Amino acid sequence: MQPISACLARATLLAAAVVSASFVSLVDLGTVRQASAQVEANSKSVVITLPPSDELPGWLYSYTPSSIDHLQTQTLYSTALPRGQVTLQKDERLLWVAPKSGFTLPSADTFSKNRIRGVALFDAEIGVELSKQLARVPGLEYLCLNQCTFSTDAALSQLSQAQQLTRLDLAFAKSVSAKGLAGVLDSNVLSALNLRGVLLSAEHMTALYTAARLKHLQLDSPDQAKIDLSLLARGKQLTFLSLTALHISSLSKAGEFASLQQLLLHECSGVTDDWLRSLCSLPELRRLSVASIDAAGQEFVKGVAESKQLQCIEVRSCTNLNGGHLLSALCRRSIDEVLLEYLNLTDISLSDVEQLSKWSVRKVSFAHCTINHVVWDLVGKVTNMRTFDVSGLKLSESMVSTIVTLPNLEELGLSGSHVGERDLLRLAGMASLRTLRFGLFGLTVDMKRRILEVNPNLDIR
User: Fold this and answer.
1) How confident is the model at residue 358 (pLDDT cuts 50, 70, 90)?
2) In whole angstroms, what is the distance from residue 113 CA to residue 125 CA?
3) Chain segment 77-105, per-residue pLDDT in tens
4) What's the N-to-C CA distance of the chain in angstroms?
5) pTM for the structure as a whole
6) Bridge partners of 60?
7) From residue 160, how far is each of 5, 164, 327, 381, 446 by CA, in Å?
């Protein structure tokens, strides 16, 4: 089977797994042949036989509820499943991805007997009839309609009839009317919605304000739409919220988002430094991402230092933020992930580094940051680091010497970085290293060969 095209690979495939779905028992598998289904009370996997491609055209992928906890567009790195006998873990689901064009939706019986709980269409025309067929797919929990066009309001609102649909991805969809959105939000179970790249009007916002069941929401407005966060929070138990390129017309009180676990604020206007500080104290918040927010400053840094529950901090391209002060604040507390990009980290004192012999952090990114020897003194002390991203940096021999001393480093990001061939081979030879990321910049065939001679088991991406 040919791999999915580059266009499809950019779209949300794995990112909308259903978090709360339970294992499908043998009874639920319906007409799956018992010879190809082996389910025992204490087994951890199930073996099923997938039909040939002429019976189920397109691609099949597996996903697990535990691997993804929110809707977010990301690249799919895994390959399509081969047809025939396949072993899945108990909590895995199958996602059917339609061909780029000329597809016919498989029959309900085909879906029901093959444990398929997700459907993804790309750049397709969605009319009322196709929408009705999608709503009738047995057990459909996740529906991805990236870049699709809805012919009428009814074509979208018809999806409210999908009785088990909990996650709907409409990223970059066209003709998403406010009336159609309100109709689909009438669903009794829909809890996650992705509207990235969708033009949002005041009427769209009203539909979102009144959707009490939403827990996961992702908005990315191409036209700087206005959003009232107090109205958005009202009556909801939001756990994941991603806002990009929106104008926040009315800020919420931090307590109104008490259930929020993950918050991503990118390129939003109307934000204040004091409000950002108050967000850091949200009791359930574990991940906070702030990017290109000019208001982020010293109060935000204080909030990060004061927070007790945050485990992942991601900050990039905040022009008025003192990156060194932020890093100093992060050094003084236990945290799992520190992802800093396009910041000046030089204003960090040596005393902050010297007081730390063991900084409890697993994943660190200094991609495209400005750094100095004090920061690298800190890096050398983070012996429990598993992932380190130095993309876009010019790595000197001494910097490389610091990296190779990290005893537990498993993944290293070097996309767009400048490193000599000799030093690159030193990095590749690290005993603990499992993955080396080069991103779009890639490697020459000869250099890749030489790296694999040093470390044959290295995963180069």
Assistant:
1) low
2) 27
3) 457 888 888 888 878 888 898 988 788 89
4) 21
5) 0.84
6) 96
7) 30, 10, 46, 53, 54
